[in-house]
Amino acid sequence: MPQISTPVKKTLLILALTIVATFISLPNKIPLNINIGKIVFKKELTRPNIDFKIGRFEIKKSFDLLLGLDLAGGSHLVFEADASNINQEDLKSALDSLRDVIERRVNLFGVSEPVVQTSSFGGKNRIIVELPGIKDTKEAVDIIGKTAQLVFAEVPQSTESASFKLTDLTGADLASARVGFDQQNSGKPVIQLQFSKEGGDKFEKITSENIDKPLAIILDNEVVSAPIVQETISGGQAAISGDFTLDQAKQLSLQLNAGALPISINLVEERTVEAILGTESVMKSVTAGFVGLLMVLIFMILSYGWLGVIADLGLIVFSVVTLALYKLIPVVLTLPGIAGFLLSVGMAVDSNILIFERYKEEKLRRNTADALEISFGRAWDSIRDANIASLVTAFILANPFDWNFLHTSGPVRGFAITLALGIGISLFTGIYVSRNLLRVFVKEKKND
Amino acid sequence: MIKWMKYRFVYLGVSLFFLIFGAYGVIKWGLKLGVDFTGGAVVEYKFENNISTEDINKSLFEKGYPINSIQKAGVDKYLFRFPPLDREEKDKVNLALEEILNTKVEELRFENVGPSIGPELIKKTLIAMLLSTVVILLWVAFQFKSFKFGTSAILAMFHDSLILIGCFSILGHFFNAEIDFLFVTALLTTLSFSVHDTIVVYDRIREYQKKDGGDLKSLADKAISETMVRSLNNSFTILFMLIALILLGGSTVKWFAVALLIGTIAGTYSSPFVAVSLLVTFDELRESLKNRSGLFHFLKFRK
Q: Could you report the predicted ipTM of this complex, rounded to two decimals?
């Protein structure tokens, strides 16, 4: 039995990787329409998703490309926080709780995978909200920016007038509110409150001081409920019981969730894209990508002959591995992101071109196999140094550590991330993949 | 072998011409800044029928909605640019448009950017450029053990950025190309393109310096000869992708791809012809300053 050489083993490994990557990178549904004369073949192939159980573990992965707002449609909103009456030292926690409250409100809105993030730069504090699939930004902005003020207040019994003694427990201390049912007695709807840790401590203190007294919950200067405190409540959980109908309870929990914004905000930037426009952009980019890829493939064969074929194989491996990684990481693909990917396809053959040009020189002095090995070795220095420089700019554009003095916006980052990934993977395909393919190829030639 | 460096002042002259041309464009026409910088609103509409942009402009103005510009974007799509509009105002504009056109309008995209975004964008871009420049300068200087190499690479990089900006002032004036977020991205990508190519040539010079030695000028000639085909071929593959994107990729990324295209061409030119030319010139200047006779010779030559 002939022994399998290492390059052949590695090539088989590459082949296996390519097959897996191709499977992952295929779209979920592939319409097949074949018309040959009178024979019409029409079928839709469906790529199965991974969905199986091993013992208690369930592995489920759908392998769908995540599309950004500009492709899937949706709204990108930037709010500026008015932090003028907040101490510098409290600012960070105030902004964090602002983000939490907005996040809660956005979740009420029922969008899938919303993004809420803060960004502070040059004395300006911003909250960036991304709502995929939302068209009606007016409603979204209204819900996010609602200046409802939630506060808990003690009700002094002695005085006749209904003046409340406000506590320091506010909407910012509430982690969540939801509808539940009174299990012990009536089975009536109640509102279950969950406070943050600090909120829980405050609540414990307030309840211990107000046993058998009402505690008013005031939203927008309106008492929504004033339940009687029955005992000291520790642990940050409480339930408001009362004569609620289910609808009322839902309404109230919604209002409580909406809570109060610790800082007032106003909208400074808004971008809304219709899904139709996004779909069109995707189609156009895909066409452009295929045409460009084809030109590169042909160009490489015309310039380098059989070496070009190897480079083309490497480029195809590059394309499917990159797409598969987008799905696995996952990378949220935006329009500039697609441009970054296409650009990296053009750049991916660079390492091959460098090596092949070197090979032309070395070939004059050595046999094919040695010339190739030496070219790979010599070209590596240039490839490494040049690509590190490219990665530096990609890194600065992608801003992976969320540094506030750099761009934090989606489009620029989307582009940089795909470009950086492309550069990284092209090092693998341009060197490892094509080198092993060449070794196998050169050996076969020698054996002939 | 071609004596590339013999004509280095021709290359630098060509670059200077383009730089002056670009500077002229920037001074004469300025840069056409998009809403990302100036603040304002952009609405993309789709109309079933052809519209007369002049009529709409006039009618909307009469109704109290001044438009900055209307631009065709694709077969049946139009970009309307307004001063900052909030959502309610924009809904009113939509109603007004429906009244004018007597048909339903389809709104595809709405962007409204406040005036505070622009200055921040400029600041962040400058920081990003500065940071990239410093890191690249240090990296090149470290790799090639000489600030001469680093400085020449950085100057070639700035040359490419300035050419790109100059080209966009001209494209902006004649074809309404705008400076926006994506342009900034293209500008920063150009930096990496430029230095990527330069390093490949430098690397050859370094290799021969170690192996054969000799004066920098003849080493540079040899390195350029041997990297020229690679440099051109690599640019071709990138240009193929970008041209496909410009022609087929749709209106949103068209000018972005054009900016990257200009950056690629400038970057390909500048690596051998600007970076290496400057490197050789710096080297000769230093040599002639080192020995007085050389300086004297240099002065005599000038006379």
A: 0.86
